[in-house]
Amino acid sequence: MDQSAQKGRTIAIGDIHGCDIALGTILYHLELTRDDTFICLGDAVDRGPGTKHVIEILLDLKATCKLVMIKGNHEEMMLDGLNGGHWESIWLQHGGKEAIDSYGGRYDLIPEEHRIFMATALDYYETETDIFVHATAVPGTTLAELTPQELRWDRITGEEDPDQSGRRIICGHTAQKSGRPLVFDGWACLDTAAYRGNYLTAIDVHTNELFQAKQNGKYRAGRTLERYLLK
After folding, report:
1. What's the rounded Cα separation, in Å, for the pair 64 and 148?
2. Residue 117 — pLDDT band, cuts 50, 70, 90?
3. What is the pLDDT of residues 38-73, one digit of tens each?
4. Taking the domains of the chain in order of start, what are their residue ranges?
5. CA dist., res. 189 & res. 180, Å (int)
6. What is the full DSSP assignment across 24-70?
7. Alpha helices of 31-173 — where are they, by DSSP H?
8. What is the CATH number of domain 4-228?
9. Mean pLDDT of the 163-173 span
């Protein structure tokens, strides 16, 4: 298990989906340092207008802090679609066109560095206190045994059991159209549907403080996850 995430702050951010201004606004207020770890829970790409810029921002973060990129289903679809795979048509209909437009409208304009960044993203990440996945984890199943379907495609309902290890599972993917994080015993889903005009949500996993911004640049801080805990 990686112990380095316990140094400095550990920040996790939900599905960015091309919301580059929202991402940049949150990062401006976070003022990350080399001791901090920044975890992107996947689906950084598609839907919103700024996929290219989002990936550029994330790549630049490598010089500022420890960046952990988890692969979402949209990164999986985009990589497949760029190679003419069976996901191409569905991907283009579900945010892929917006992603390609951000690169100038052609597949060949996507830098190799961006393709490698998506292809080398992790299936999951873990610390002593938390488990980070894009879509879901299955309590009682080791992380190494999780399938691509579970890691990137299955959705949560809010009724899942906590992990037997006692660690919290922090995920994205299951978009909360309400714009409110889904928080229940042992779980926190940070996909607050930013591309729909809601806030993009990041949290300090040690303090549970929320950092949120909209694509129009509006910023909000000072709330904590406990505010959204399902009773």
Report:
1. 30
2. very high
3. 999 999 999 999 999 999 999 999 999 999 999 999
4. 4-228
5. 9
6. HHHHHHH---TT-EEEE-S--SSSSS-HHHHHHHHHHHTTTSEEEEB
7. 51-61, 73-82, 88-91, 97-102, 112-119, 148-152
8. 3.60.21.10
9. 97
